[in-house]
Amino acid sequence: MIHVHITKEIKRFKGTEKFLVQTDFSVGAVTHISGPSGAGKTTLLRIIAGLVKPEHGHITFEGETWLNTTENLYLPTQARKVGFVFQDYALFPNMTVKEHLSFGTKDVELIQRLLILGKMERFIDQRPRELSGGQQQRLSILRALTTRPRLLLMDEPFSALDQALKAELVPDLKLLLIEMKTTCLVSTHYPLELKGFADFYFEL
Ligand SMILES: Nc1ncnc2c1ncn2[C@@H]1O[C@H](COP(=O)(O)OP(=O)(O)OP(=O)(O)O)[C@@H](O)[C@H]1O
């Protein structure tokens, strides 16, 4: 179980507001995080990854403490072993597709498998600026999987993919997550694209 109980001051155009989340997420499953624009989906994922610090709260992952503000405990992002798919991809401009993937793993079989999963085999020597938006987004998903993360956090990960690609990628990705025993929290405005992918639903 992932236990999350946090409060964070978030900036609104008219000042600040308290953002409170108190919930448990199932481990070994995919949870769809939904909510209107500005509800705090990105902020919640970044807090769980350790990229943003809340003022108060605690987060535990299968009994391991990641955050406890009362005891001043803060496990850094690298130690949480999470994979993150950012809304804006956050790729390295000077790295090729292959370099992005081998940055996370030396397992050539896994790299090959990921390239096939994302239909990226033909683009291994290309840099982000030479890729389409959908190819960049797929690369960002594949890169997050190279470390076989315990927890995969994905922020609008399929927004740039066409329907046909989504229909192929999403079920294959689900099977890989089950095989890797990776827990996944995914935010999207389009619940239909997570049909058969998400096991649980959490509304902010
Ligand atoms: N590091 C931060 N510190 C304080 N406030 C923040 C921080 N990051 C974002 N915010 C504010 O938190 C609110 C929620 O933003 P967030 O991006 O998490 O929403 P969201 O639900 O992901 O929205 P969208 O669906 O439009 O992407 C916004 O009002 C934003 O200005």
What report would you give on this structure?
There is one protein chain. The protein is an alpha/beta fold and 204 residues long. It has a single domain (2-203), classed as P-loop containing nucleotide triphosphate hydrolases (Rossmann fold). The protein has 6 helices and 10 strands, in the order E-E-E-H-E-E-E-H-E-H-H-H-E-H-E-E. It has a 5-stranded antiparallel sheet with strand order 2-1-4-5-6, with no helix packed on it. Strands 7-8-9-3-10 form a 5-stranded parallel sheet, with helices on both faces. Helix 3 packs parallel to helix 5 (133-145). The protein is globular. It starts with a strand and ends with a strand. It binds adenosine-5'-triphosphate. Adenosine-5'-triphosphate is lined by residues 10-12, 35, 37-43, 52.
Main sheet overview: 5 strands, antiparallel
Order of neighbouring strands in the sheet with most strands: 2-1-4-5-6
Mean pLDDT: 96
What is the strand content?
25-35%
What is the CATH topology?
Rossmann fold
- End-to-end CA span: 19 Å
Shape estimate: globular
SSE class: alpha/beta
The helix tally amounts to: 6
Poorly predicted sequence stretches spanning 5 or more consecutive residues: none
CATH architecture designation: 3-Layer(aba) Sandwich
What is the percent of helical residues? 25-40%
Instruction: Supply Rg.
Output: 17 Å
Distinct small-molecule ligands in the complex: adenosine-5'-triphosphate
GO molecular function, one term: ATP binding
Keywords: ATP-binding, Nucleotide-binding
InterPro entries: AAA+_ATPase, ABC_transporter-like_ATP-bd, ABC_transporter-like_CS, Molybdenum_import_ModC, P-loop_NTPase
Domain ABC transporter: 4-204
